[in-house]
Amino acid sequence: MTATDRSIELIKTAAQAAADKLAHDIIAYDVSDVLSITDAFLLASAPNDRQVKSIVDEIEERLNKELGAKPVRREGDREARWVLLDYVDIVVHVQHSEERVFYALERLWKDCPELDLPTEAKATRGKAAEHAKLQAEEDSAELGELR
């Protein structure tokens, strides 16, 4: 089995929405062969809770407005560290960068085929590492100033 046209349409729209809100490391997997509950997973991350929430809100709004899709379940809202949107055909995971590294969902799904995403979404690969490096440099510079 492979992801349906509807799943792919949802994934691409969600990925574009996430990219528009500056999500990091957007990737999608066709999990239809290994899971019977959904066709595809979309993973995205952000360096802070507020941005996680902003990405989730944008995905939800765009999928509703453009494709008439509403999630049947939304989890993780309060903490905004890992928000899950379940659209039955697809499941979207938007994680705080720290959770993304800790839980490493990519390792779980690495054997599943990767789905093609819009160019802007593909361009987000490696952004979390870049951001972490810049943050470390800023922190180091601030520490130097304090001394």
What does this structure look like?
With 147 residues, the protein is an alpha+beta fold. The protein is built from six helices and five strands, in the order H-E-E-H-E-E-E-H-H-H-H. It has helices at 5-20, 49-67, 97-103, 105-109, 119-122, 127-146, and strands spanning 24-30, 40-46, 73-75, 82-86, 90-96. A five-stranded mixed sheet has the order 1-2-5-4-3. A hairpin with a 3-residue loop joins strand 4 and strand 5. The model has no long low-confidence stretch (mean pLDDT 91).
Largest sheet: 5 strands, mixed
Gross morphology is: elongated
Count of alpha and pi helical runs: 6
Q: Identify the quaternary structure here.
A: single chain
- What share of the residues lie within helices? 40-55%
Record the strand order, biggest sheet: 1-2-5-4-3
Q: Assign the structural class, choosing from mainly alpha, mainly beta, alpha/beta, alpha+beta, or little secondary structure.
A: alpha+beta
> What Rg, in angstroms, do the CA atoms define?
16 Å
Sequence of secondary-structure elements: HEEHEEEHHHH
List keywords for this structure.
147 residues, 5-stranded mixed β-sheet
Short overview:
The chain has 147 residues and is an alpha+beta fold.
Q: Layout of helices and strands, plus pairs?
A:
Elements: H1 5-20, E1 24-30, E2 40-46, H2 49-67, E3 73-75, E4 82-86, E5 90-96, H3 97-103, H4 105-109, H5 119-122, H6 127-146
